[in-house]
Each structure stands twice: as structure tokens, then as C-alpha cells.
Amino acid sequence: MSSIGSRSVGAEEKRERLLDVAEAVFCRLGHSRTTIAELAAAAGVSRPTVYAYFPSKEDVFRALADRVRDEFLRLQERVDTSSPARTADEAVRAFFAAYTRHHGMLVVIAHQALVDPAMRELRDEIVARPERRNARFLERLVADGRAAPAVPPADVSRAVTGMVARAAELAVDHPEQADRLGGELVALYLRMAGIDDDRG
Amino acid sequence: MSSIGSRSVGAEEKRERLLDVAEAVFCRLGHSRTTIAELAAAAGVSRPTVYAYFPSKEDVFRALADRVRDEFLRLQERVDTSSPARTADEAVRAFFAAYTRHHGMLVVIAHQALVDPAMRELRDEIVARPERRNARFLERLVADGRAAPAVPPADVSRAVTGMVARAAELAVDHPEQADRLGGELVALYLRMAGIDDDRG
Amino acid sequence: MSSIGSRSVGAEEKRERLLDVAEAVFCRLGHSRTTIAELAAAAGVSRPTVYAYFPSKEDVFRALADRVRDEFLRLQERVDTSSPARTADEAVRAFFAAYTRHHGMLVVIAHQALVDPAMRELRDEIVARPERRNARFLERLVADGRAAPAVPPADVSRAVTGMVARAAELAVDHPEQADRLGGELVALYLRMAGIDDDRG
Amino acid sequence: MSSIGSRSVGAEEKRERLLDVAEAVFCRLGHSRTTIAELAAAAGVSRPTVYAYFPSKEDVFRALADRVRDEFLRLQERVDTSSPARTADEAVRAFFAAYTRHHGMLVVIAHQALVDPAMRELRDEIVARPERRNARFLERLVADGRAAPAVPPADVSRAVTGMVARAAELAVDHPEQADRLGGELVALYLRMAGIDDDRG
DNA sequence: AATGAATGAGGGTTCATTCAT
DNA sequence: TATGAATGAACCCTCATTCAT
Fold it and tell me: Which residue numbers delimit the HTH tetR-type domain (chains A, B, C, D) (predicted)?
């Protein structure tokens, strides 16, 4: 019926769809209440079918977490670098959008990180890596005299991650405010970093 | 049942000790992996004894969450108000300290909030209430011409919550940096809020 | 369906090959751990293909057991009867060789006999029938004055079955001793049966 | 109701009773068809109760197998040694009785030995150790001129194990013949070993 | 107040088997 | 004929919870 895909669709695609479904379920139910039965039902298949695509529940979760991380890693690749303010604008907005989109998973990942060192690392790749990258970006700007942050770049960088995370929480419940929130985040960032706003 | 005599006091104390133990266990194992057996073992009692103090595992968790929230609520009561900068300094540092101290529980609470509306509310009391209070504080300062935030006070306020949360994560792993981090948080906040630093 | 033409012959051959593979797998993994998946993998085919040749896993096992039994039944047909000692020699060695060759299957069959009356019967055909036949053989020899067993022929007969079984166990792990063991078995049998060794 | 024991009984005793029940079930159903549910039902308890005494189904089986082995090991301790024939008589009969009593378990152990090296060792302790002991016993007799086996002592010894095993199979179905079978086994053994029958 | 003992409910996982292609 | 895909039925095991002592 409403199974996860017709026969003609490749297995890889079905796996991907299963992950989509799984993300929704994990975000709705959290890690422990997400059962294979629930995943299967949400995907319109039977329990054993889930095992045709993933060896275990934990593997579903790991694959999901990996996918989220990969999306975050990809974010950093395409950013307009025509001016510091533009770079900041795009980077912050993109990070904010991704954070909002995957807010639930990030909460679950943080929870699992309490228990699983692998999740701790994965979370680090999502959160701390962009921070380090951003810190280096600021340091370069400072060296060029184009930024004058109030506190060390690393702290600005960390602060912005936190700000984005918190704003994302709000954006999840009030998507209509997402745009405005993005704007405020950028504004705050520019001010914290002491970057001249030369956008448009 | 038992009067407020020594017996009762002992019971209240034991309950409190049980909660201390429980907080440690919940932070180490997360919500689902925390079993009554583990709580009992960590407290050096048998499983049924836990039920003498709490009706269910969920009640242990709720009591714990309540305790954390209460501590956050109490934070706001004693703040030096001799100057805006001093107020900000104390409030931010206190919030940051509490956030660091209860970081694990806050992660678990966030996770449970995905599932349990009551936890959503509780989390709101911990995070959003101080934000609103802070926003009002800023608005008053703005009205008095003593603050000139870069973005609306509500956004500054939300931003600082996020910053603190992220800094707390770091402070958990590197307690030796807690002081410095607290200072940076205050500095950033003052700058974001456009408050003159008239401290010492 | 398919005539006895080449197709059918191919099918029969494949079935036989499948049984060969299955014997190896059942002996390696025992009855319960042998899965259709394992059989299919060992045969280099997909799971459903196994079902093209056998209606069920139990049928694979039954066919296998039947094949083993048939081999044992055939043993008794060609035995040199030129002298009692020669008869004994050939019969014991042949039985011992077959027992060694199919030791694993015989263990599995014994195990299944605990549960399945049909396997009990089959095992009886493999083990008890030769015993009865042997007992009659001895009785005839006794009547002719050519044997003087220490105990009733039926007991001698049963004893030799047991001896062979135990020797086979050893021969499985130490094939190089098979010949010597065969010799000892014959010697013991002759002595137990009180048959003059007029061989060679 | 008909649970495995009243509260007053020690846990050790209950464990022992559970093992008694388990032996019956394993012998009736074989290894794989024996489920925890069946064990629990046979013992008159619920499934989780079984886990209060054993960590897993495999542990139940191992404990059972250990118990059987221990009983076999104890057999060898008390044997009348007033004369070779008496020693042989007692040893063979005792081994035969134990083999009959635990026939089912020995079949299951043999089956598991296909898969589990630990079971292979355990089986060796049950079967091969008495053989080696017996072989040494015969060697001593030979040295003293009190035995003249038809084949090397080790082979006699192995043969008798096999004979006993096969006789036990029969005795399981026909307990009324056990005594007679025991006698025949002893007679055969004495003859094979070339021991003078000086028993009363 | 405290606990040893027991269990109902439920979740993860496996596997023989079927079916559409 | 052969198979990729899917599933019903079980089974092992865990855990929150209860109860008699």
C-alpha cells in the first residue's frame, strides 16, 4: 500500500526514505521510545523489513546521525565570500536553517552523547568543527584589520553556535519567525565580531 | 503518617540523597538506560526501597527535574542591582554556573521534552522565563537610556541563553576554563546589550 | 512437469549437490543453527532456490537423513561370505567406514530423534536393523557350531554397534588411525562372538 | 501453586530444582526447541523468574551439562577394588547406570559439541577421561599378569564406552532390561579384557 | 522501613517461508 | 528456473513494578 517505495525504486533510495521516516519518528519520540515497530509502521512496512536495510536499531540511528552530520559538513562548502559581512550572513543563516531543520535529531544526538562516545565525536563534528572554522575566519579578519571582536574569536564563535541553537528551538515552534530570527542572529554576530556591515 | 519528627526528617534527607544519586545516574546513562536497579545500586539500597520514596521511575525523574528548575528559579532572586553592569555580571555568571552544574540533566530534560509536554513546560521555566525577565530588564534600561542593544531585547536575551548553554558544555569538560568563560560571556552580553561596563 | 530429459537430470543432480552441501552444513552447525540462508549461501544460490528443490528446511533434513540411511542399508548387500571371519571383517569395516563418514549426521539424527518419532525410526533402521541382522548371523553360526559368543548374540551385536560408534568419533578427528581402529574392532568382534579367525 | 519451591527454601536449592526440570525438558525437546517459556512453564514459574537463577538459556544448559559431568567424575571415586573383576563389575555398572540416567543430555551435549568447543571438552571429560583411566587400570593388570586383553587396553577401553552407550539407549526404552544389560556388559568387558571372573 | 522473589508487558532480533518478477 | 523483497511467528531478554515477609 503506502509502503516506502515501489519495487522499481532502488534499494539505496528506499534506505534513504526509511531514514527520512526514521528522522521524523526519532524526533517525535526520542531515542528510547522509538521502536522498530514504530519505524516500520511509519514506513508502511513490517518490522523485519527494517532489518533488510539496517542491521539494528542502533544502526538506523547512527546512519541518521551520520546523515545529519554530513549535511552540516556540506554547509561549509558553498558560502559567498565577496565580503566578510556577506560570508557571515550566509554562513550564519545556513547553519541556523540546518539547525532548525534537524533540531530534534540534534537534541537526541546530544542525549545519546551522554552515553556513547561515538555520538560525542559526531556531535563535535557538527558543532565544534564549524566553530573552529569560524574562529579561524575571524582571526584572519582581525589580522587584516577587518574585524574587532569584543572577546577572543574562539569565544565569539562558540557564542554564535549557542545563539543559533537557541534561536532554532524557537524557530521550530514558530517557523514564521525564522527569517526574522536569522536576521537578528546575523546582526548580533556582526556586532560581537566587530565586523562592518557592508551588505547591500 | 509519620510526624515531622526525626523519622520524617530522616526520610526527607534520604529522599534528597536519593535524588543526588539519581541526578548523577541520569546524567551518566541518559533517561532510558537509567534503570531502577541502577538507581538502587548507586544509592546502596534495594529496588523496592526506591519505591518507598518515589511512586515510579518517572516520578524520580520529575522530582529531579523539579529540583533543577527550582534551583534556576531561585537564581533570579538574589542579584546585585547596584548597576546594570553588575546586575548583568552576576546574573550571567550565576546562570552559567547553574547551567554547567546541571548540564547533563538539562540535556536529558531537553530530550524528554520531545515526548512529554510537562517537560516542555518545565524546560520553558528554566530557559524561557529568565529570558523574558532579562528582556524586561533590558527594556527598562533602554527606556532609561542606559542600554542600546543591537537587536530587540528579546533577541539579546535569547542569544545569551544560547551562549551560556554552549559555554556550559565546554565548561563541563574543562572546568578550569569556567571562570574565563564566565568573563567572556559577560563581556559579550554587555556588548550585545549595549550596556556600559561600569564595573569596578 | 519436466520430463526425464536433460532438464530433469540437471535438476536431480542439483538436488543431490544441494544435499551434499547440506550435509556439510548440518554437521558443522547442528540442526537448529543450520538456516536456509546458510544452506543457500553454501550452495551459492539464493534462499528461494532452495525451496525449488525442497518444500521446507525439515524436508532437506529428512532427505539427507534418508540418504544416509539408504547408504547404510546398501552396506549389507555386498559382503564376502566365504567364511564367518571374512564376513565379520567386511561387515564391521564397512559399517565403521560409513559411521565415520556420516558421524556428524548421525549425531544430529540422534538429537532430532529426541523430538521426532520419524527420526527415531530412521535411526532404528540405521543402527538396530544391522544389529538384528548381525544377531541372526551369529545365531546361525552358533547353530552350526562355528561361533561361541560370551553373551547372547543380540548383546554381542549391540555391543559392536556401540564400539563402532565410539571408534568412529575418534576416527573423525584422527583419520590416520581409521585403519588400525578398524582392525581392532574386527579383532574385538571376533573375540566377543567367539569366531575363529580364519582370515588370511 | 506448583512453583519450584516455597519461599523458605534456599535459592541454591531452587536453582537445583530448576536444573532438574530443565534436564527433563532438554531431553524431551532437544536443545533448540527448549525455550525459556517451556522451562518456566515446566517449573511452574514465569519466564523472568528463570533469569533470576540463570543469566541466559545457554547458561542453564551449561550448568546442566556441568552437573552431568560432575556426576560422571564422581563415579570414579568409589569403586570396590578387592579384585579386578569386582572393580570392573562396579565401574561398568555405575557408568552404565549414569549413562542411562542422563542419556538424553548426553545426546544433546554431543549435538552441541558440533558447534561449541566447550561442549566438546565437556564431553571429553565425561567419555574420554574414564576411558583413559580404564586403560591405565588394564595396563596395570596386564603388567601384573592378571589381564590379557585381545587388543591394546586403550581400544578395549574405548570399546566398552561405546558398548555402554548403546546399551544405555536400549535401557532408556526398556528399563526392565537394565539389570540384565548391565550383566552382559560386564561379561563382555571381562572377556574383552581377558580378566578372570573371580566374582562370588 | 526494607527487601528477596516474582512477574506482566514489551522491545530487538531471527528465520522459515512466500510472492511478484 | 531463479531471486529480491517482504513478512508472520517466535524467541530471548529486560525492566518497571508488586507483594509477602
Answer: 12-72
Same-domain check for residues A44 and A77: no
| A19-23, B43-47, C6-10, C126-130: segment of lowest average pLDDT | C6-10
Closest listed residue to residue D102, CA positions, set D65, D77, D131, D128: D65
CA D1 from chain centre, in angstroms, equals: 32
Cβ atoms of residues D91 and D118 within 8 Å? no
Classified as helix, coil or strand, C83 is: coil
Domain that holds residue C95: 65-193
C-alpha cell at B27: 546524567
In this complex, do D115 and C33 lie within 8 Å of one another by their Cβ atoms?
yes
With respect to residue D1, please indicate whether it lies within any of the assigned structural domains: no
Q: Does D173 touch chain C (CB under 8 A)?
A: no
The answer to whether C42 CB is within 7 Å of strand F is no
B38 and B69 inside one domain: no
Last residue of a domain, one of B54, B77, B93: B54
A and D touch with 3+ CB pairs <8 Å, answer no
How many CB atoms are located within 10 Å of the residue B54 CB? 20
For D73-101, what is the mean pLDDT? Answer: 91
**Is the pLDDT at C6 greater than 80, yes or no?**
no
- Angle made by CA atoms C116, C117, C120, in degrees to the nearest 5: 100
Q: Is residue A139 part of a domain?
A: yes
Is C145 buried (19+), middle (13-18) or exposed (0-12) by CB count in 10 A?
A: exposed
Query: For B75-98, how does the pLDDT look when each residue is reduced to its tens digit (9 = 90+)?
Result: 988 777 889 999 999 999 999 999
For chain D, the average pLDDT equals 93
Instruction: Say how many domains are in chain D.
Output: 2
Q: Please check whether residues A86 and A24 belong to one and the same domain.
A: no
Residue nearest to nucleotide E14 (CA to C1'): A48
Q: From the candidates C134, C151, C180, which should be mutated to test the interface with D, based on the most D CB atoms within 10 A?
A: C151
The Å distance, CA of C56 to C1' of E16, is 8
Chain C environment of D115 (Cβ under 8 Å): 28-30, 33
Same domain, residue pair D88 and D183: yes
Would the CB atoms of B115 and A30 count as touching at under 8 Å?
yes
D25: which chain C residues are within 8 Å (Cβ-Cβ)? none
CATH number of the domain residue B42 falls in: 1.10.10.60
pLDDT tens figures, C111-155 = 999 999 999 999 999 999 999 999 999 999 999 999 999 899 999
Residues D149 and D70 in one domain: yes
CB distance from A120 to chain B under 8 Å?
A: no
- DSSP 3-state assignment of B45? coil
Size of interface C-D (CB pairs under 8 A): 120
pLDDT band for position A79 (cuts 50, 70, 90): confident
Q: At D152, give phi and psi (nearest 5°).
A: -50, 145
To probe the interface with B, which of A34, A38, A100, A188 has the most B CB atoms within 10 Å? Answer: A188
- Residue B50 covered by a domain: yes
Half-sphere exposure of A23 (CA within 13 A, CB side): 17
* Whole-number Å distance between alpha carbons of C46 and C53: 12
Residue nearest to nucleotide E3 (CA to C1'): B46
Residue pLDDT, tens place only, D137-180: 999 999 999 999 989 999 999 999 999 999 999 999 999 999 99
Looking at the complex, does the CB of residue C174 fall below 8 Å from at least one CB of chain D?
no
Residue B112 with chain A: CB contacts under 8 Å: 30
pLDDT tens by residue, C152-190: 999 999 999 999 999 999 999 999 999 999 999 999 999
Chain A contact for B155 (CB, 8 A cutoff): yes
> CB–CB of D131/D154 below 8 Å?
yes
User: Looking at the structure, do residues D69 and D50 belong to the same domain, yes or no?
Assistant: no
Asked if residue A150 is part of any domain, the answer here is yes
- Same domain membership, residue B148 and residue B171: yes
The CATH number of whichever domain residue A76 belongs to comes to 1.10.357.10
Looking at B54, B73, B89, which one is the last position of a domain? B54
Chains B and D physically touch (3 or more Cβ atom pairs below 8 Å): no
